[in-house]
Amino acid sequence: MISFFRRALSSWLVLALFGLVLIAFAVTSIDPSWISGNGGGGSQIATVGSNKISSNEARQRVDTALRQAQRETPGIDMAAFAAQGGVDQVIGQTISFAALETWGREQGLTVSDRLIDGEIASTPAFFGLTGKFDRSAMEAALGQARMSERQLRAEMAGDALRRQMFVPIAGGARVPDGIVVPNASLLLEQRAGLIGVVPAEAIPAGPAPTDAEIQAFYKANAQRFTIPERRVLRYALFGTDQIAAAAPTEAEIQAFYKANAATYGASETRTIAQVIVSDQKAAEAIAAKAKAGTPIADAAKAAGSEAITLDTAKAQLAENASAAVADAAFALPQGGTSGAVKADLGWYVVQVAKITGQAARPLAAVHAEIADSLTKQKRDEALSTMISGIEDAIADGASFDDVARDKRLTVVTTPAILPDGRAPAQPHWKAPPELPLLMRSAAQMTTEDDPAVETIGTGQRYALVAVSEVVAAAPAPLADVREGVIAGIRNERSAKQTRAIADAILAKIKAGTPMAEAFAQTQVRLPAPAKANARQMDLLRRDRPAPPPLKLMFGMKKGETRLLAAPDNSGWFVVQLGEVIPGDARTQPMLIASLRGDFSRSMGDEYIQQFIAAASKDVGVKRNEAAITALKAELGGQGQ
């Protein structure tokens, strides 16, 4: 159910970037108040060196991970997530991440502010109308997520620190041919045989069940006919379309224009080729050759270096290289070549290939653009103020009805619904499109919980949500499920008869009767066995799940016959393996290369896990198993 999430969390290389995943969640209005240890409170589940990890921090990380899993499997709830090991994984990784960051900083690893600035500037959620980084857009996004810039920078720094450790460790993993080639040959192994099926639908239905049989089956299988816990939701939608923000004044438009003069004023970008070498004399030699007419790429190659072409503005070049390099590059005419210029990374030689200028845009040309931007900003600020006012009112004791009445919101009341949005008592009721998003949090709410403000989509719409009733799980009335009970009785009968027929066929085959004859001799009419063959690698395709009988063949001995239950009690397969054809991967170099890559990644993950264990031991990690067990029970729905 949560296969993608579990695959991602099984790879420590993926986890090295997990911080950025959380950041992406944060800037789409998922509350990240726990980032960088600010989710304190609750019991202490672990200590890492002198740092403590609280149950609240772990709980919020688990909630974020659950939301990620729900993107692949809508409808999965916390109980199912916990049952499949998701909670255990996230708690373990939270502790491991803290140990890694602590160890890295103790060894002197650091992350520069300049690197974090680059990460922030390249985050699409922080782009403005120009398609480039805009501080106002960043502040708006962080404001909606209730996240400070300090918290954002701390999480990005931790992510960068982990990459410094993970990438070199995993990158050195190499697997020899002695391991790769035999395993690749197994993937090419081919198996052939016969597959027969004894379908339950071929078995006569028999007489209708009596009332006594129906009652007995219903009681014995009450769990099968139990309707899970349901909730009645009350919610009210609101968003920017309900905000009547004032239009910006001329003074505000002019002030914005002046404050962003760099954006609207005249600008110049240059296409340059730059060469970086460590020696001044080598740089001067490259410059001399380029000025004499040798292509700068050839001059760089002769010196054992490389010319890199890029489009850049002066300020960008000054930030990435140095002010001196930028001054030299932007003082040259088109086609000109600089001398050797010293910078932090070494000696630069720059040649200007093209100069592109953009004229200044007067206020009249961008007036409407600025007005639209400021109007949106005012509307977003008004909406943020409205949300804060609602949350403050709830914190002061206001009820759902109080807030809805005060803000003139339209209230929607649902039937008693399941976490997936279905209403068992009203099978024809259709859930509105916003309900699945609201159920992600409402599925955990009770009637005692305060109303909550939930984000819908990209943050332009919100909902005030409360649970007015929780209907406990209980068996459906027999009258409502009578036909299902009768179908269950008949399925049980046919399942027993189907198994008996399959057992009889298997016994005849083991006694020496050919498989086709054993099928033909049954008292019911069955389809003849069919030939089947496959390679091991054919069963691993993600776009087409392998049939279970074919998978079974690769666990059998030549000449062996086995039974395999068909899904949903729909019958039995009779599988006979007739031939095994070995594979030879030496004729498939691409397969060997692909498998070597998979093995190397697995080995890299193993190296990293061993490194994490050593780092954890070095900094001193102590787990509070009692607190962890209590948290897991609470999240899994086993608490009081």
Automatic annotation (TrEMBL):
Domain PpiC: 228-354
Keywords: Cell inner membrane, Cell membrane, Chaperone, Isomerase, Membrane, Rotamase, Transmembrane, Transmembrane helix
Domain of life: Bacteria
Molecular function, one GO term: peptidyl-prolyl cis-trans isomerase activity
Predominant location category: membrane
Pfam families for this protein: Rotamase_2, SurA_N_3
Subcellular location: Cell inner membrane
Any one GO CC term of the record: plasma membrane
TM annotation in the entry: none
Record's bilayer topology term: Single-pass type II membrane protein
Family: Belongs to the PpiD chaperone family.
Name of the featured protein: Parvulin-like PPIase
Species, as recorded: Edaphosphingomonas laterariae
